[in-house]
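Chapter review: from sequence to fold.
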Amino acid sequence: MNTILKSILAGISISIGGTIFLLCESKIVGALFFTVGLFCVCVFGFYLFTGKVCYVFENDKNYALQLPLIWIGNLIGALGTGFLEMQTRLAPSLVEKAGSICQVKVSQPLLSAFLLAILCNIMIYIAVEGYKTIPHEVGKYLAIFFGVTVFVICGFEHCVANMYYFTVGQAWSGKAILYLLVMTAGNGVGGVFVPLMRKAIRAQER
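The token string follows.
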């Protein structure tokens, strides 16, 4: 229950970041404020699939088995946030903007979605690992700021953010689910890529 609740809160946090992005006329400004999502996750210890998957090879089997539950919790948070927003005056603006974004996401080749998801989670790892390990307080938050802003501006694919976009964009379908699963796999690969490379480098340096 603790895992699912923290995962739901992470889904809500990322969805609020997505809301800001959709409502900003400037893509750059929206990307800057999207960082509130990962900021909340890191500061309050919520469970975000894209952050947790980065450390799957550094933990035991039980940690890996929690990842699907975290993904489901993130989905519940994103669906719930999107549903609630659809009952407010924000709905028309959100539906219009998210709908066009979702159309682009599910029209690209699956390979494109997979590769963009890998690049996304490379940036997420940089953000999360920077927050965890940089000793200087300003540096910790700059890691989140740069990691998230870069992936949003570049249009990389974040599976939890897309859960929210598919909801408010009213774009859920069998095709959307397929793309979301491919993006999830890409996020997983991107999340472990840099940690595994760092481990290999350390092994070579010994």
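Two observations follow directly from the output. The chain has ten helices and no strands. The chain has one domain: 2-205.
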